[in-house]
Amino acid sequence: MKKINKNLTEGNIKKQLFNLTWPMLFGMLGMVIFNLVDTYFVGKLGVQQLAAMSFSYPVIMFINSLSQGIGIGTSSLISRNIIATNRQEVKMMASRALLLGFIVVIIFVILGLFTIRPIFSSLGAKPEILNYISDYMNIWYLGVPFVVIPMIGNNIVRATGDTFSPGMLMVSSGIINAILDPLLMFGYGPFPEMGIKGAALATVIARCTSLIFILTVLIKRENLLTLHFGKLKNILSTWKDVFYIAAPASLGLLITPISIGFITKIIANFGKEAVAAFGVASRVEMFALMVIASLGSVLIIFIGQNFSKQKFQRIFKSLKYALNFSMVWGVLVFILLLLFGRVIASVFTDDLLVIEITKNYFYIIGASYGFQGLVMLSSASYNGINKPYPSALFSIIRMLVLYVPLAWIGAKILGLNGVFWAGFIANVIVGISSFWFLHHTIKKVSNL
């Protein structure tokens, strides 16, 4: 296999962003396939099981955010060194970053296994739903290493300029999960009928295939992994560089599941149908925003390389393209949700109340997706210029300062729709302010 190192500091910006983004889009599609397929088949089991998966969503996002934060830190570090630094040093950086991610997440998995019932009880889960949550999470937690290592490994490969291999890997993993879900959940053929446990096991098996593939790419093709991590001071130095980005990036990412946990607790007061609808809407939202998320991942790589070469005009042009795309895409998605919101909701459940609540979510929060895209793009860009703290700050403002308090107030005044309007307001305010401050920060750094 041939090494792939792309120089993004020269050439046509639009073409480079497009060529990097479309493979990432397939990768995001793979992630969405995971979530939508799980939601679809679990919905066939019943509203209680669907509510159980909705309750699990904040905790799963919490673990994913830890590994994604380390992945973002690694991607930022590697992208800023892949062209100018000695290959052996880059190899050591990548290996140490993977080790760091594995250690950090294993600690949280051990804690998670012993706190399943207390955590989900605090989120508002009733006893009958807690049993389904426990069935799902006990298996999911054991498979977390298979989730984390490929996630960080994908970021390393992307930092070399190859977004195709990680994208195809994530699609393949999603397809495997889609095939195994009904077999393990409903017991077709020789497979046992496992119910919601089958959904968790299908995820673990699919992620295991991702682990094998990404390690093969990193070891055989890129030669970017080694078991020789070097001296302790060098290991700690790399971990410090990764953590400089990873800590605020993880904090920014963790703010979302923590806040969603509070939102879920507020929504739980309106019944299990409301929680189930919130889970369905959240997963469809991931699908709606996956193109922008793909572009955001690409911006870390693109801006990282150009920042290392002081190519600030290229950075400004890339941000202009990103702004225009986010707003246009947000409008298109909202139009689709206005036309087909009820139909989309009915794919996942036949419960009329769940469908109605999901539709209302689409009609209200869907109007702010273009601005939510700006939050995502600006967060990625801050990490690309090695300025991660504004990203975390705006995440805190969006979720904890605006969304959660306004949701609590909105629920008292307008009921469930008041919670959704809170999300709309938070997206618009933070989308505008975060992107404006990003431009101001880059101008200050570049002295333009």
Q: Can you tell me the residue ranges where pLDDT is under 50 for at least 5 consecutive residues?
A: none
Task: Work out the helix count.
Answer: 16
**Averaged pLDDT:** 84
Amount of helix? over 70%
State the distance separating the first and last CA atoms: 43 Å
Order of helices and strands: HHHHHHHHHHHHHHHH
The total of beta strands comes to 0
| Structure class | mainly alpha
How many domains? The number is 1
Biggest sheet record? none
Radius of gyration over all CA atoms, rounded: 21 Å
Give the overall shape, derived from the CA principal axes.
Answer: globular
Q: β content, as a range?
A: under 5%
Describe this structure in words.
The structure is a single chain. The protein is mainly alpha-helical. It has one domain (13-446). Helix content is 84%, strand content 0%. The chain has 16 helices and no strands. The longest helix is centred in the middle third of the chain and has 37 residues, at 232-268. The chain is globular.
Element layout with pairings:
Layout: H1 13-45, H2 47-79, H3 87-113, H4 116-122, H5 127-142, H6 144-159, H7 164-186, H8 196-221, H9 232-268, H10 272-288, H11 290-308, H12 312-346, H13 352-365, H14 369-384, H15 389-414, H16 416-446
Helix pairs in contact: 1-2, 1-7, 1-10, 1-11, 2-3, 2-5, 2-6, 2-9, 2-10, 2-11, 3-5, 3-6, 3-9, 4-5, 5-8, 6-8, 7-8, 9-15, 10-13, 11-12, 11-14, 12-13, 12-14, 13-16, 14-15, 14-16, 15-16
